[in-house]
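Open question from group meeting: does this chain pack into something compact, or does most of it stay loose? Before anyone orders reagents, we agreed to write out a predicted structure and look at it together. Recording both the input and the output here so the notebook holds the full record.
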Amino acid sequence: MQHEYSTLESPETASHTAGIPSATDTPREWLEHFPGPRRSAVANWYYAAVRHGAVTPAAVVHQVLQTVQRRLQWVSDPAATAHLQTVQEALQSDRAGALAFAQAVLDWEALPYAERQQRKAERGRHFQQEYMARMPVTPQQQAFLRTLGYTEEPPTNRLEASTLIDTLLSARKGGRP
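Structure tokens returned:
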């Protein structure tokens, strides 16, 4: 189960003159300060900070800020400069959100590898099911349903077929001595 974290909104984060939203409801929402294609780079800076030894949210945010400032010294592309300045501004003006995201990264990295993999799979399951619901039943699913003795109305999509197959297999296993 994925944890949701709430952040307390401080007076500093309540009034953003630069148009940056106030403290976020969940740590991942802090990444919404940035365009979709740029979020993973920002998140990776957080993970890199933790993997390089930062053990508190403040230390993580500090290392990310240092990374941004170093990159600002060397970047020549105007779009990259603008992005880095946006990150720097968000780190400073929405400190509560930045710290909450840092804590979420620390918590994630503290989980055992197997649990992280399980949680990733759980998060992705919804998208997989959404995709399967849009796709027609495969010939293999239809054949397997016949093998299982299913003779009723055929399912309309892959998700229905998959769920039906799981149900029939469970019933078959449960009926064995």
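Observations to bring back to the group:
DSSP finds eight helices and no strands in the chain.
The mean pLDDT is 85.
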